Amino acid sequence: MATATTFAAPYSIHAGAKLRSVLKSIGTFLIAYGELRAARAMQNEGIRF
Fold this sequence. Notes:
About 90% of the residues lie in helices and about 0% in strands. With about 50 residues, it is mainly alpha-helical. The chain has a domain at about 25-49.
């Protein structure tokens, strides 16, 4: 059991880090997309910063 855990631990840590980076980039994209839509909506309403 310990051998399997020792073997699987580095893989799961690597997979977790990769998943986190993918989720972070998706989150960053969604935030930027939301801000872009909000800015465009404000422009359409005639609101200027």
